């Protein structure tokens, strides 16, 4: 009789879950892919060099990268645990020449190895089914992409509103992925603002508002007292937006979750 018709007794010790490798300190990862997202931003896909499974982590958490000759630096993961890899999106600032981000963008290629820390961080989605408001600027979109992916997969009926501010379409990393994820969430909306739109970009078509993020744009998204707000960007941006939301006296302070990106070398 052919083997696939045979019935065998199953024993608990014959069915084993993957041995997820948790680690402390540093672990070597290999670059599997790199993608130029926009003029100053690159996404790297990393897999463990030892080919062992990754430990569980939460969307929105990050890892630190270490390269000989440079101070380690933390980067948010834009991937989710279901992807089986780490994706990080790195932005190089004009005055970052010589910093780790610039070195990675210039010199880290497919097949290269780099040391990575275990995922950590508390900027993660609340487990409740409450509405979610995501507000980000610049590279602050990275944790939002991971969170959107988690919502689209595990909580597609959750209401989501994303507000994002950047220079223009050439400085909008993960743009296509962000828009596609929003489409997968039925009760969702997205407002994008460009501070310096290009001549071929049109308000109402390519973006929804021009210039600085104003209170009127935030008001519509922040009127539900049950909402959880996730706010990511520079310290100035985060404090500015947080203070506006608190002035509405609608969303409690403990429902506003923030992550500040600090420029380091």
TrEMBL record:
One example GO MF annotation: 2 iron, 2 sulfur cluster binding
Keyword set, alphabetical order: 2Fe-2S, FAD, Flavoprotein, Iron, Iron-sulfur, Metal-binding, Oxidoreductase
Cofactor(s) in the UniProt record: FAD
Matching InterPro entries: Cbr1-like_FAD-bd_dom, FAD-bd_FR_type, FNR_nucleotide-bd, MRET, OxRdtase_FAD/NAD-bd, Riboflavin_synthase-like_b-brl
Domain FAD-binding FR-type: 24-126
Protein name, as recorded: FAD-binding FR-type domain-containing protein
Lineage: Bacteria, Pseudomonadati, Pseudomonadota, Betaproteobacteria, Burkholderiales
